Structures are given as structure tokens and as C-alpha cells.
């Protein structure tokens, strides 16, 4: 093997000049569009109706939770079906801080992510002992434990749930401003943060782990530590979405906070949009959002189709819609990989 | 006395959980995958059984025969159509595929049977009980436990001393080497899934005789099966059986401490095992 | 020479983007012992994997009795009468010696008139009879290799592929195992021997193929090929230049 390389190196003595490029024209356009969208979300109170704000906040939460799942499954090789655990604990932490401790609710939202971070750190110690698919079911058990524990926890009003009455001390406009800014911040952290993470050397290491964990470990990548960090980071992002979502709802109960729907929606969005890419999550979230608005009235039938679509994607199109688009156009909106361009002499 | 009763009831409940867990242990052992529809299939079979019983006025034992056969057929179809395409080193495809199927199945059942809880009419045997010292023990739970014991023992014998069992153990140990010794992995996989779902036919009848079923209940059966397998020790048939007993006892004792604490107690025992003895009760170091 | 029992024709194999074999022509007749030598990574194991159906190859690239069998699934190839002693033995850990052997018996191809039976195998390796009930992981390396060979033989092969069966074994054990080969081939079973030890390969085989970077660099009757020719074919032109 080494001889094959030794022999061929003679022929390629004069190395062609190459440049490493990550920006493309479509990525520049996408960058500009993203900035515009962020500004649009942040400035919603100026131009959008209450109903639209509610819808957009919900969509932002889906995008975030799905992107966190994507980070876990698409890059960290950690398949979770229990992300609702982090939605729930963060949302409850926010309610406790704001309603029971009297903290400013808009401050309570970012503070509340400490709880999912701690829960994630503790549970990882247990869950990482489970092999592949069993890890996934383990995450579900953790979410169930938290749901059941919350349901019997008198301090948070047990199964009856809580209302965020402190919000009534703010005018509707103040609430809209606060929640729009928080949503924009969340998108920036979740999507922008993942983008920066994946472009960093840690991102390269993650891709290496995904493609071949053994080889990555032998190249000095600390696989265990990286997986742990990504697990905690995803819990923080998921929790942030949970806190914002339930602040918009103004009410929380254990079944809603720890609803498996969060896992269902993330998995659908990522698998239909495209695993392991930021673009896929955005596409998937839009598809889900539109489908939910148009077809949710068909109830169970709609969910049957959603489930079957996820199944079909897993069987036949693992790259999702984005994978199919890329086959046709080869454009990348958020390029995280490096492209080698050969300069003509 | 309350605690002794809790222990006995727990063991009997474990008999039902063992019937959920056996198939999962078998499938994970040979394919390294978890079928997320595992619990939904119990519910599907149970609902079909309940409909059969009321439509053709069949007794529970003839329903049992039909469901076991139907389970095997569903297992073969599931394996051929879906699982054979996603079996492999990466756990993601099989998880996602069966996860999607699970959502579809649950909602399809909701459409067909509505969200009502239903149960199977079993006649006198459901309420029969006998006195064991100071305690009263139900006849049906004892039948469930005996059935679980016979199923576990039978599966053990099949794995130890039949052509299929040897092929299955060989494929579990090293599927490529097994193929190079003439074993067709897909035949083994199909057999394993057919047996696993056929056993769920027993679970379906006993579940719907002992209590009730509703379309969304599958998640619980999946989680109980999983916890039993991990508590007992992965890849061991008797481990799954023992884990099911441990889970049943935990829930039953927990329930006697506080009715809201029963299921949670089972989860906590599972987490404790994961923390203190991750290889499970019967697993080796 | 009689018509080949097993042959490959311009066999090309790749692992993803990496091409490992560039047109291998190989053949072996009934009763022959043919050695396959070459440096690490030359493609010997890849050739065996391609024959066994573990890598995707075109049907015409592998022929058994002149019939195209390339790309046939491994378990069907075994049923057709080709068995392999895989590199690293790959025994069924957790199962007893006899159960490892029974898997082969259960799924064997058409048994020949004087096919392999447990009795005949125990005659070849008496150890196997003594250790029947022992789990394979508690055997020594040499004993494990005998189980692996026994398992392959009980598949009733007409062609037996042996991938580095001497690797990691004590010289005494290697000698014992190699002494068993002639009695296997006498009955008409063709043996392909992938071997690192060139001297051993040459002494045991009727013919040999030397592989270099995915190609056959030398082939001929083992007794007639000079050490120098093998050295050159083994290391390639770079060696000659150096």
C-alpha cells in the first residue's frame, strides 16, 4: 500500500496550486437572507399580528429543537427519542423562576437552560453505557421519569400544571417585543452557533467521528468528551426552545411539557429535510409547519402520513429533501465543508 | 403482609413483562436493533383480538391461537419489507424507520378503534383466585407467569439445540462468519422477528384479559420491555425473564408505597441498575 | 492441466472509491494446492472476499465449473462448494466447539461421495473430539484454528480457501496444521492458501500466484520459480531499482 503512494508521488511532483474555499455565491446569498430573517423575527411587533407572531415563535422553536436533534444524530451519532426531557425541565425551570421566585420572566428564559444542562450532564453518565439503539430508548425513559416526577411534585403544582400569571404585568406589546427578541436570539444561537461549531475544528472532529469513530479516536480526537459536550449543548438549545415556547403558551402541564410530540416533530423535520445539514432542518421545518397548518385538521390520518413519510425517508432517501436538491444543483447555503479549487496556471 | 402481597403480585406482573421483553432481547441479540413498534404491535394484536372475539364470538384461547399465528406473519412482513433494509452497524436507520412506523401505526389504530380503552372478555377465569396461605392469588396471573416461563424455557431450548437456534447464535456472534459457514442471515433475521412478534400475540391476549388496551399504550410496553432487557442483562433470554420480574416487583412495591409512584419506581430501579451494574443482573463484567 | 474448478477472469474489486484489484486472472483445479503470496495490502484477502461474495463483483468475473457465480451471496457460494477459513478465524464466540462445527454441518452443500464427517475430522484433529463441549474462546490459538478449518471442511467444500492460517501460531502448531493439508487435498478438494511465509507457501503448494498492488505479478509451478523471481514479484520494480 505504501508503495503505491510512494510510486505515484513521483508523478505528482509539481503540485497544482489549489485554494481552499468555503464561501460560494449561493452561500453569500443565504447569509444575507438569514440576516434579513433574523431582523424580521426580532422586529415582528412592528409589523406582524399577534397570531402571526405566535406562529413564527412556534416555528422558531421547531427549527431550534430539530437543529439540536440534527446536531446529535447527524453529527454526534447520538439518536435521542427523549429530547422532550429538556424541553420540559427548562420550561418548568422558567415557570418556577418567574412565577414562584419573582424573577423577570425574560431573564428567566436564558437562565432556565442551566437546568437542562445539569440534567443532560447527569443522564449522559448513565445513558452512554447503553449500546446504539438502546441509548435512544434510554433517553425516552429519562423523559418519562421527569414527566412522572413532575406530575407528583407538589412545588410545581403536580399534575395540574402552572400558569405564568406574572406575564399579565406586561402589556401585550411588551410581551411581543420580549418574545420576538428572545426568538431571534434563539435562532442566532441555535442555527448560527451550530454553523460556527461545524465550521470550527471541533466540527471537523465531529464529522470525523460520524464517518469513522475508531479512526477519529486514533487520530487523537477525544470522541467521548466531544459526544458529551454535544449532548449537553443540544440539551441547552432544546431547553431554550422549550422555555420560549411555554412562555408564549403562558401555561404548562407535565403531559404538554414532556410531550413525545417534540421528538416526533424533530425527527420528522430532520429526516424529511435532510440529516446532517443546516439547510435540511430549515426545509424540513417549513414543510412541517405548512403541513401542520394545512392538514392538521385531518387529525390522525395526517399523523399516519407523517409517520409513513418518515419511514419512507429512512428507507429510501436518508439525505432527505436537501439531499435530493443537492443531487440536482450541488449548491450549499451554509457550507461547512471545504472545497478544493484548482487554479488554472 | 402488604409487602409479601406486593412481591407476589410483582412476580406475576413480571410474567406479562417477560412476554414483552423476550422478543426484544432476541431481536437485539441477533440484529443489534430495537424495533420501536414493539409495543404498538402488542396493542395492534390485542385490538384485532378484541374485535375478533366480539365479531365471531371467539373465546380467548382461540383468539390466542389466531394472534400468535398472525404475529408470526406480521413479523415476517415487517422483516422483509422494512427491517432487512435498515439492519446494520448504524443504529439510526432502523430507529427512525420503526419510529416513523410507530407513529403511523398508533394513529391508524386511533382511526380504526378510536381512543377508547378496551379489554377482552375472558369469562370466569379472569376473576378466579385461590388462597395461598394468607394471600389471595389470581388464577389468570399465574397462568400468565407459567406461560412466560414455558415461553422462555422453550426459546432457550430452541436456541440451544435446534438448527435454527445454532444459526441464530452464530449470526449473533459474527454475522459475516455465519454467512461464510452457509447461514443465510436474512432467513435467521426473519425467523427471529417472526418468533418475537408471535410471542407478542401471547402478550396481547394476556394484557387485554388482565387489564385494558388503548391505541397510545404501546410506548409503555416498549419501555417496559426495554427496561426488563437492560435490568436482566443484554442478550440473555433468562436475563430478560429475570429483568421482567425485577421490574414487575419494583412497580408493584412502588405502587403500594404510593399509587403515583409505581411506574416511577420501575424506572428508578432501571436507572439504578444502569448506574451500579450496567451489564445487568445476569450480564458478565 | 484439467479444466479449472474455480477461476477468476479480469476480476476487479473496490472498497468504495478505492480500487483494490485490477483484473485478476486466477484458476485452480480439483486436488491442487495453490499458494497466494504478496505483501500486506497486495489484495490477497480481497481476492478471497470477492470469490466468497463479500464484495460486489460482476457474475462473469468468478466461475465455478465454468458457471458464472461472481457476486453470489456468501451462503449460496458455500452451498455451491466453496468454503473459507477466514483471517483471524472468526469462530462463533460463546458457542462450544461442537456447536461451531454443527453450524457448518447444518448448512453444508451437497456432500461428496466421501464427504467430511465428524469422525473423519476427529481423525484429522483428535483434539476436536476431546474439546467438543468447551466454549471456543477458551481454546488456544492453534486449537481455534483447527476448529476454523474443521468448520470450513464440514461445509463439504470442493474448494477450500485458507486465509493466513499460520498467523500468530507457534511453529510447532503451524507444522501440525500444514501436515493436515495434503490429506485434505488428496480427496480432490482444491486448496487456495494465502500465506505470509513464502518458504512454507512454496513448499506446500503445487503452483503459486504472487500479487503486487492489486495485480498478479508472477505465477507458475512452485518448484520451478526461483527465489529471485519471487523477490522481484513480491516487492515490485521499486525493489529492483533499489
TrEMBL record, chain A:
Q: Which domain of life is it from?
A: Bacteria
Cited CDD domains? TM_PBP1_LivM_like
Name of the featured protein: Branched-chain amino acid ABC transporter permease
Gene Ontology MF term list: branched-chain amino acid transmembrane transporter activity
Q: Which organism is it from?
A: Metarhizobium album
Q: Where are the transmembrane segments?
A: 28-48, 68-95, 107-127, 133-156, 177-198, 228-250, 262-289, 295-317
Q: Provide the topology term for how it sits in the membrane.
A: Multi-pass membrane protein
The GO cellular component terms are: plasma membrane
Record's subcellular location: Cell membrane
Tell me where it mainly resides. Answer: membrane
Recite the UniProt keywords alphabetically: Cell membrane, Membrane, Transmembrane, Transmembrane helix
- Keyword Cytoplasm part of the UniProt annotation: no
From TrEMBL, chain B:
GO terms (molecular function) for this protein are:
transmembrane transporter activity
Output one GO BP term.
Answer: amino acid transport
Query: Which GO cellular component terms are attached?
Result: plasma membrane
Q: Which residues cross the membrane?
A: 6-29, 41-58, 64-83, 135-159, 188-209, 221-247, 259-276
Q: How does it sit in the membrane?
A: Multi-pass membrane protein
Query: Where in the cell does this protein reside?
Result: Cell membrane
Q: List the Pfam families.
A: BPD_transp_2
Coiled-coil region list: none
Primary place of residence?
A: membrane
Keywords associated with the record: Amino-acid transport, Cell membrane, Membrane, Transmembrane, Transmembrane helix, Transport
Which family does the record assign?
A: Belongs to the binding-protein-dependent transport system permease family. LivHM subfamily.
The protein here is known as Branched-chain amino acid ABC transporter permease
What organism is the protein native to?
Metarhizobium album
TrEMBL record, chain C:
Q: What GO biological process terms are annotated to this protein in UniProt?
A: L-amino acid transport
Name under which the protein is recorded: ABC transporter ATP-binding protein
Q: Which InterPro entries would you find in this protein's record?
A: AAA+_ATPase (IPR003593), ABC_transporter-like_ATP-bd (IPR003439), ABC_transporter-like_CS (IPR017871), BCAA_Transport_ATP-bd_LivF (IPR052156), P-loop_NTPase (IPR027417)
**Which PANTHER family does its entry note?**
HIGH-AFFINITY BRANCHED-CHAIN AMINO ACID TRANSPORT ATP-BINDING PROTEIN, HIGH-AFFINITY BRANCHED-CHAIN AMINO ACID TRANSPORT ATP-BINDING PROTEIN LIVF
Keywords (alphabetical) are: Amino-acid transport, ATP-binding, Nucleotide-binding, Transport
Which family is annotated?
Belongs to the ABC transporter superfamily.
Question: Which superkingdom does the taxonomy of this entry point to?
Answer: Bacteria
For whether the record's keyword set contains Lipid biosynthesis, the answer is no
SUPFAM superfamilies on file = P-loop containing nucleoside triphosphate hydrolases (SSF52540)
Gene Ontology terms for molecular function? ATP binding; ATP hydrolysis activity; branched-chain amino acid transmembrane transporter activity
Q: What species was this sequence derived from?
A: Metarhizobium album
Positions of the ABC transporter domain: 6-238
Amino acid at each position: 500500500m505504501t508503495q503505491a503512494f510512494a510510486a505515484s508521488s513521483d508523478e505528482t511532483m509539481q503540485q497544482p496550486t489549489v485554494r481552499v474555499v468555503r464561501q460560494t455565491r449561493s452561500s453569500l446569498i443565504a447569509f444575507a437572507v438569514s440576516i434579513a430573517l433574523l431582523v424580521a423575527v426580532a422586529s415582528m411587533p412592528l409589523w406582524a399580528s399577534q397570531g402571526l407572531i405566535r406562529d413564527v415563535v412556534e416555528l422558531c422553536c421547531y427549527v431550534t429543537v430539530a437543529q439540536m436533534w440534527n446536531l446529535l444524530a447527524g453529527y454526534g451519532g447520538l439518536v435521542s427519542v427523549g429530547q422532550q426531557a429538556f424541553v420540559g425541565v427548562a420550561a418548568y425551570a422558567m415557570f418556577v423562576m418567574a412565577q414562584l421566585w419573582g424573577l423577570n420572566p425574560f431573564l428567566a428564559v436564558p437562565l432556565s437552560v442551566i437546568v437542562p444542562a445539569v440534567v443532560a450532564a447527569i443522564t449522559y453518565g448513565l445513558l452512554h453505557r447503553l449500546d446504539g439503539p438502546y441509548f435512544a430508548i434510554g433517553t425516552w425513559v429519562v423523559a418519562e421519569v421527569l414527566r412522572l416526577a413532575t406530575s407528583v411534585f407538589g412545588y410545581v403544582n403536580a399534575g395540574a400544571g402552572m400558569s405564568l400569571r406574572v406575564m399579565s404585568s406586561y402589556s401585550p406589546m411588551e410581551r411581543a417585543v420580549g418574545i420576538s427578541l428572545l426568538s431571534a436570539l434563539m435562532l442566532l444561537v441555535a442555527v448560527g452557533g451550530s454553523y460556527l461549531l461545524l465550521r470550527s475544528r471541533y466540527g471537523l472532529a465531529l464529522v470525523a467521528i460520524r464517518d469513522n469513530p475508531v479512526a477519529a479516536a486514533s487520530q487523537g480526537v477525544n470522541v467521548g468528551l466531544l459526544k458529551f459536550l454535544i449532548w449537553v449543548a443540544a440539551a441547552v438549545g432544546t431547553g431554550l426552545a422549550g422555555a420560549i415556547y411555554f412562555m408564549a403558551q403562558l401555561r404548562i402541564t407535565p403531559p404538554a411539557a414532556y410531550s413525545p410530540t417534540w421528538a416526533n416533530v424533530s425527527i420528522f423535520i430532520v429526516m424529511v429535510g435532510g440529516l446532517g445539514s443546516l439547510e435540511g432542518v430549515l426545509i424540513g421545518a417549513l414543510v412541517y409547519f405548512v403541513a401542520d397548518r394545512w392538514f392538521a385538521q385531518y387529525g390522525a390520518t395526517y399523523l399516519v402520513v407523517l409517520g409513513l413519510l418518515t419511514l419512507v425517508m429512512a428507507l429510501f432517501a436518508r439525505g432527505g429533501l436537501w439531499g435530493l436538491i443537492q443531487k440536482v444543483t450541488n449548491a450549499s447555503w451554509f457550507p461547512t465543508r471545504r472545497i478544493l479549487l484548482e487554479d488554472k496556471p | 403482609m402488604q409487602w409479601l402481597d406486593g412481591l407476589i403480585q410483582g412476580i406475576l406482573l413480571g410474567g406479562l413483562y417477560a412476554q414483552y421483553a423476550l422478543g426484544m432481547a432476541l431481536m437485539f441479540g441477533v440484529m443489534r436493533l430495537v424495533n420501536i413498534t414493539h409495543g404498538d404491535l402488542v396493542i395492534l394484536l390485542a385490538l384485532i383480538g378484541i374485535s375478533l372475539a366480539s365479531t365471531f364470538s371467539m373465546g380467548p384461547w382461540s383468539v390466542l391461537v389466531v394472534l400468535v399465528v398472525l404475529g408470526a406473519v406480521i413479523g415476517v412482513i415487517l422483516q422483509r419489507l422494512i427491517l432487512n433494509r435498515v439492519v446494520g452497524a448504524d443504529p439510526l436507520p432502523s430507529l427512525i424507520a420503526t419510529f416513523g412506523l410507530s407513529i403511523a401505526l398508533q394513529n391508524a389504530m386511533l382511526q380504526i378503534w378510536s381512543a377508547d380503552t378496551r379489554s377482552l372478555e375472558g369469562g370466569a377465569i379472569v376473576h378466579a383466585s385461590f388462597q395461598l396461605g394468607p394471600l389471595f392469588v389470581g388464577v389468570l396471573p399465574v397462568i400468565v407467569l407459567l406461560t412466560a416461563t414455558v415461553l422462555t424455557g422453550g426459546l432457550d431450548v430452541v436456541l440451544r439445540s435446534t438448527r435454527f437456534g445454532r444459526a441464530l447464535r452464530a449470526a449473533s456472534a459474527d454475522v459475516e462468519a455465519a454467512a461464510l459457514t452457509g447461514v443465510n442471515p436474512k432467513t435467521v433475521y426473519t425467523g427471529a422477528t417472526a418468533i418475537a412478534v408471535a410471542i407478542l400475540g401471547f402478550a396481547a391476549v394476556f394484557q387485554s384479559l388482565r387489564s385494558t388496551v388503548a391505541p397510545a399504550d404501546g410506548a409503555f410496553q416498549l419501555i417496559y420491555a426495554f427496561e426488563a432487557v437492560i435490568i436482566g442483562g443484554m442478550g440473555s433470554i433468562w436475563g430478560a425473564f429475570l429483568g421482567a420480574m425485577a421490574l414487575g416487583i419494583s412497580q408493584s412495591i412502588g405502587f403500594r408505597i404510593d399509587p403515583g409512584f409505581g411506574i416511577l419506581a420501575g424506572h428508578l430501579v432501571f436507572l439504578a441498575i444502569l448506574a451500579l451494574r450496567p451489564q445487568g443482573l445476569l450480564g458478565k463484567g | 492441466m484439467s479444466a479449472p474448478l474455480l477461476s477468476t477472469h479480469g476480476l476487479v474489486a473496490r472498497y468504495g472509491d478505492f480500487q483494490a484489484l485490477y483484473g485478476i486472472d486466477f484458476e485452480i483445479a480439483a486436488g491442487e494446492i495453490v499458494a497466494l503470496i504478496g505483501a500486506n495490502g497486495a489484495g490477497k484477502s480481497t481476492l478471497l472476499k470477492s470469490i466468497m461474495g463479500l464484495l460486489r463483483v460482476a457474475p462473469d468475473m468468478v466461475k465455478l465449473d465454468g458457471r458464472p457465480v461472481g457476486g453470489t451471496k456468501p451462503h449460496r457460494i458455500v452451498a455451491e462448494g466453496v468454503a473459507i477459513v477466514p483471517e483471524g478465524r472468526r469462530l462463533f464466540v460463546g458457542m462450544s466447539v461442537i456447536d461451531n462445527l454443527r453450524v457448518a454441518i447444518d448448512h453444508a452443500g451437497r456432500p461428496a461421495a466421501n464427504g467430511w464427517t465428524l469422525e473423519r475430522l476427529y481423525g484429522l484433529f483428535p483434539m476436536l473430539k476431546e474439546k467438543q463441549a468447551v466454549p471456543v474462546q477458551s481454546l488456544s490459538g492453534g486449537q481455534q484454528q483447527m476448529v476454523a478449518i474443521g468448520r470450513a471442511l464440514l461445509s463439504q467444500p470442493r474448494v477450500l480457501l485458507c486465509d493466513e492460517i499460520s498467523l500468530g501460531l507457534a511453529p510447532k502448531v503451524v507444522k501440525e496444521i500444514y501436515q493436515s493439508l495434503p490429506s485434505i487435498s488428496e480427496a480432490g478438494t482444491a486448496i487456495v492458501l494465502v500465506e505470509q511465509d513464502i518458504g512454507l507457501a512454496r513448499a506446500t503448494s503445487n503452483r503459486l500466484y504472487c500479487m503486487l498492488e492489486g495485480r498478479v505479478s508472477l505465477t507458475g509451478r512452485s518448484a520451478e520459480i526461483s527465489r529471485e523471481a519471487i523477490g522481484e514479484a513480491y516487492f515490485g520494480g521499486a525493489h529492483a531499482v533499489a
